[in-house]
Amino acid sequence: MRPYSEAAQTGAAGIFFVKTHGLGNDFVLVDGREKSFRPQAAIIAQICDRHRGVGGDQLLVLEAPQNARADVRMRIYNVDGMEAPACFNASRCAAFLWMQEAGKNSVILETLGGLIEARMAEAENGQPRISLYLAPAVTDWQAIPLAGPLANHDGLLNHGPLSEPFAVSMGNPHLVYFVPDFDAVDVSLEAAIVQNSTYLPEQANIGVAELLPSEGEEALLKLVVYERPGILTEACGSGACAAAVAAVRSGRTNQKKFRVLMPGGALQVELCADDTIILTGDVAVAFYGFLPEEASTEFNKDNA
Predict the structure, then answer these.
(1) How far apart are CA 245 and CA 115, in angstroms?
(2) DSSP symbol at 228
(3) pTM of the model as a whole
(4) Which residues pair with 167 in a beta bridge?
(5) How far is C-alpha 235 from the geometric centre of its chain's CA atoms?
(6) Does 145 sit behind a cis peptide bond, omega within 30 degrees of 0 on the bond before it?
(7) Is the distance from CB of 130 to CB of 281 less than 8 angstroms?
(8) What angle is formed at CA 205 by the lines to CA 241 and CA 111, rounded to 5 degrees?
(9) What are the per-10-residue average pLDDT scores of the chain (304 residues)?
């Protein structure tokens, strides 16, 4: 990214990247607007490998927008090379970098899951924060997608302490399970089994949540999300939104403002009267560097 590209002017060989994160949910971001960057799945896996690569939960690539309303397009690649439709922590990080570059306080990101408006929020403890203004959650089983109506899963979405899920799409599929004792659940073990259920044709992100006593106007949720394709992340923005929506629509609370506590920190979620959602959280830049030139190997043109 140009705001941090002094290192790119040193003459060092390779493809400049920024390592960024939102509450520990970390990303390797490459600017592909001037020179296309479409690495093969094996290269993506190597870049995201925490021992043999840069390390990250996803690879992000910025491109020129295709939608006339957008300022920039963001492509999101999971560690298995598959393109993800949405990631709200990634969106906050990319939005922050773009705003720093453009000298603006807002941006419209184009993603595979749709357009996202982002705005600079008030910093907290010296840490920059970004707010995303999001479309309403979708609960139609075909759009999530499920193999059939949620009520008909016949136990295929239950395992151990995980039962009675709430299914929702935030541009990507989520199942939210509420448990009475969050710390007693082995999330990686239980969620992995549910995630591979035949009732989830495209798998889903599995959220395990506990609703805590509220603090003033904010409801408190403790949450961890086991994300596709099988990663227990430090934080999940879309998962935080899904859990807040699930808490209200399942009748567990009538509060509309949430503080969602995850291993990497807290996100704020506000459910608006028109069902739109505002998600606010920290962003940070970890470091910059260069990928080797061979990382630029392109996908098959059919994937462009």
Answers:
(1) 20
(2) T
(3) 0.91
(4) 175
(5) 8
(6) yes
(7) yes
(8) 65
(9) 50 84 96 92 95 95 97 96 94 97 97 96 91 97 97 96 96 96 93 96 96 89 94 94 97 96 96 97 95 68 43
Instruction: Note the pLDDT of residue 298.
Output: 53
Omega cis (within 30) before 229: yes
**Alpha helix stretches (DSSP H) within the chain:** 41-48, 88-102, 187-195, 237-249
Other CB atoms within 10 A of residue 140 CB = 12
pLDDT of residue 214: 85
Place of tokens 């949430």: 258
DSSP structure class, residue 208: E
Element (H, E) at 29: strand 25-31
d(CA 73, CA 109): 6
CB count within 10 Å of CB 186 equals: 11
Question: What positions carry a catalytic annotation?
Answer: 87, 236
